[in-house]
Design a protein that fits this description.
Number of strands: 7
Distance between the termini: 27 Å
Structural class: alpha/beta
Order of helices and strands: EHEHEHEHHEHEHHHE
Shape: globular
Length: 252
Amino acid sequence: MPIYEDLKDASVLVTGGGSGIGAALTAGFAAQGAKVAFIDIAETESRALVERLAPDAAHRPLFLDADLRDIGALRQAVGEAAAAHGPVTVLVNNAALDDRHEIDAVDAAYWEENLSVNLRPHFFTIQAVVDGMRQAGGGAIVNFTSTSYMLNIGDMPAYTTAKAGIVGLTKGMAGKLGPDNIRVNAIAPGWVMTERQKDLWVTEEGLADMIARQCLKRAIQPEDMVGPCLFLASDAARMVTAQVLIADGGMM
């Protein structure tokens, strides 16, 4: 992985950084020498990740146990990250929950609960870090969306609605925060083979069909999202904002 010198000692915050794609991102930033804090509710996995990364990290990753549905707890976690590492200058909004749900089974409470995980925290985490980024002279925000809303996938309408909304949020925040030298971009992964996906939904036939539709004929791994995220977070992308980087192996 390339080394981005400007990420060394940077104050980085990753939501959902304890497992899956988030854990790969936490590890990727730690390998850059960044001061990484991550928010998650998966305590066992998160503490194990810290212990795995700490021996080789210039800065021990900081696990913040908070439920992103609780905006007060979210704001407190952002404050703890800033107190430990200085104002957050790189924010990665990664946390998500892609539960499948049938149209007839969705009521108002389920809809609100789904978006309280998959969309609402993205805005409020941005809101919580913006003042610190302004004081620091700028920053980079990377929001994780998904290709799912582009592919007409019909078995998770609340989730795909949220993921489409993240693109709108990205573009709106890029326009608003650009004058403050804060860049806002998004990454849209394809079907990434996290442990959750493999445990719940991956079948041999389904994976083969997906790979057949990709230009690049291999399964996408969580580590494949690290390079795009580091690039967008770094000064190498200093004139890149309001963009969505699709990382799906070239879906056809």
